[in-house]
Every structure is written in C-alpha cells, then in structure tokens.
C-alpha cells in the first residue's frame, strides 16, 4: 500500500512538472514568434504604411509647445522659413512611416506633402543658414527652416528622438541636405559614429550613392522607404537620439534646423518626437510610477511572464523531478527487498 501511495505521489509530481513545462514552452514560443514576425514582415509593413497627418496652420508657439514637455515653458521663440509657414507643422499618426507617432515636422519643401506619394521637391528660393552650412564645410544652403527658443531646464538630461528623411537619396546626383540641433551653440545631432546628420553621411542600404568625405559615411542608419506610397521621400534614417546633460535651473538655448544644400529642390524633412524636452514631475515619495517618465517594467508586462519567471520554473521543474525520482528509487529498493 505504501508503494501505491508513493506511486500516486510520483504521478502528482509528474503532472505538476508538465503543468509548469507547458507554460514555460509557450513563453519561449511567443518570444520567438515576435522576433520572427519583426524580421520577416518588416518590408511588407513598410509597403502598407499608413503615412500620417500634418497641420501647418498652428502658431509658432504651438509648434514649440508640441515639442517640449508639459513642464517646460519656452520663450524667445523664433521660427524662420517660408512666409506662409509651410515648412513647419505638427504631425500625428506617423509611427509606421517614420517610427515616431507624433511631434514636429520640418521640411525644405511643403510640410503638408510629406505623407503623399510624390517625391517632395519644391523651391521657395529661400535663404540658407550659416550654422547649418558650417556643419558641412561651408557649403551653400537653401530653403532653410529653423526653430529657436530658450527655456529653463527642469531635468538634468535633455533627450530628443528624431528621424531625418530625404528625397535626395536614390537620385542620379545627390546633394548633401543637412540637419542640425544646437544646444547652447553645440550641434548635438550626430550619428553614433560622430558624423553630422545629412544625406551624405548616412549610407543607403546599397552603400550608394554619396561619396562625401570627410566626414566618413556611416552604415546601418538608413531605412529604404521607396515602397511606402504614403511617404514623399525615398529613404529616412532610423530613429536617432540626441542626449545632453544640463543643470536644472539653467537657461538652455535650442536651435534646430534643416536646409537644402547645393540647390533648392529634392527636399528633406525632419521629424522630432513630441514632448521631447522635460516631462511630468517625479514624485520622490512614489518611486514606482507606471505613467511617469521612467516607468519601471513590472512582472508579467504585456501578458508575457519575464524571463526570470521562466528560469524559476525550470529550477522548480528540476527540483520536483529529482524529488520524484528519489521517491521512486527508494520504493523500488524497498520493493526488491
Ligand atoms: Ca535638397
Ligand atoms: Ca526645397
């Protein structure tokens, strides 16, 4: 009878083990399926991208307000571009096309056309910008659009996320349209390699066509958007990040701008994520703020147990198996005697 009860106990252990093994396997498969989907279907998703919407009829103050966080009060706002304010606006619902859902868009053409099928190429016969020209060896710039403002820093770190797009890529002859983001006078819009952000410094996926030097072209930052019928540029950068340490309480001067280079046509655009500067105040009495600027990932996020739980399950499984086989070995030994 004792052997029978222990055998039933062993069966219960085995049922428990399989009950834990199956969810653990499901976790692994879900993760693999997610990765596989990203790799396999990214080009198709790009082809079906839904574009986005742009509004250029907002005021200069609202443009900057869309860019900064809720706690930041910008002042000394100056926006330069065409007289009809077509070169700047706010955009929404653009995650599929540009990798950023909403924010501020700048264009060396008509910002209203960035989510259309035709190649953006519009001349305003507008002036360039000396700071942008300096980024590319003093080359002549045209149709520049710039935003400048001041604010008092409330956080020790400024973070901008942005995407540079251009109709210059995929042309027989390219011009080195350029973007600059100056924080207290220093350009912080740089590729991870240290190069400025321009048509010529971001190599296309085929490694062509721009032979600029210096600075050396950088690979790995180009996204081919030729197949996106709701995007007016043949390519864009990946989502790039600019970070700058500042002292809370100090006045920070921001200047960001974009320009055609060499001539006024085959435009480029810049998409800056909204609420890039500052954010909601951090309450020191509530360190775990799920909706705060630095949410802490909790266990079971998105319905998928974190890896640590799966590892714990394996330890439990092994322990239970060892215990079960120990019981079985003991009973077999007794049964033989
Ligand atoms: Ca151009
Ligand atoms: Ca232009």
Structure notes:
By secondary structure, the protein is an alpha+beta fold. The chain folds into two domains: 47 residues; 223 residues, no CATH class. The chain is built from five helices and 14 strands. Strands 1, 3, 4, 6, 10, 11, 12 and 14 form an eight-stranded antiparallel sheet that branches. Strand 7 and strand 8 form a beta hairpin. Helix 1 packs antiparallel against helix 5. About 23% of the residues have low confidence. One calcium ion binds next to loops.
How many structural domains? Answer: 2
Largest sheet: 8 strands, antiparallel
Task: Give the integer mean of the pLDDT values.
Answer: 75
Bound molecules: calcium ion
- Into which percent range does the helicity of residues fall? 25-40%
Q: Which percent band covers the strand fraction? A: 15-25%
Query: How many helices does DSSP assign?
Result: 5
The ordered string of helix (H) and strand (E) elements is HEHEEHEHEEEEEEEEEEH
């Amino acid at each position: 009878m004792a052997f029978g009860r222990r055998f039933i106990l062993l069966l219960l252990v085995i049922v428990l083990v399989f009950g834990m093994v199956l969810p653990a396997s499901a976790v692994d498969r879900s993760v693999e399926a997610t990765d596989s989907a990203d790799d396999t279907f990214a080009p198709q998703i790009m082809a079906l991208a839904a574009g986005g919407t742009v509004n250029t009829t907002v005021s200069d103050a609202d443009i900057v307000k869309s860019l900064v966080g809720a706690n930041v009060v910008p002042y000394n706002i100056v926006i330069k571009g065409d007289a009809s304010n077509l070169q700047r606006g706010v955009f929404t619902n653009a995650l599929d096309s540009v990798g950023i859902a909403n924010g501020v868009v700048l264009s060396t053409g008509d910002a209203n056309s960035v989510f259309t099928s035709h190649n953006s190429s519009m001349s305003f016969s507008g002036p360039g910008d000396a700071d942008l020209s300096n980024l590319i060896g003093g080359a002549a710039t045209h149709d520049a659009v710039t935003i400048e403002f001041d604010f008092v820093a409330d956080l020790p770190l400024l973070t901008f996320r942005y995407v540079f797009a251009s109709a210059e890529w995929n042309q027989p002859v390219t011009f080195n349209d350029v973007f600059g983001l100056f924080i207290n006078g220093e350009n912080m819009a740089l590729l991870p390699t240290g190069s400025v952000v321009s048509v010529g410094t971001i190599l296309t996926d085929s490694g062509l066509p721009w032979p600029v030097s210096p600075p050396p072209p950088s690979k790995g930052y180009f996204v081919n958007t030729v197949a996106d019928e709701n995007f007016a540029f043949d390519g864009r950068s990946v989502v790039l990040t600019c970070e700058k340490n500042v002292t809370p309480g100090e006045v920070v001067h921001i200047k960001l701008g974009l320009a055609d280079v060499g001539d006024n046509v085959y435009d480029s655009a810049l998409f800056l994520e909204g609420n890039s500067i500052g954010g909601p105040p951090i309450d020191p009495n509530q360190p775990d703020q799920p909706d705060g600027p630095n949410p802490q990932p909790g266990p079971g996020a998105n319905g998928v147990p974190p890896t640590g739980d799966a590892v714990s399950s394996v330890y439990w499984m092994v322990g239970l198996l060892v215990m079960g086989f120990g019981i079985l070995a003991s009973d077999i030994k007794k049964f033989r005697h």
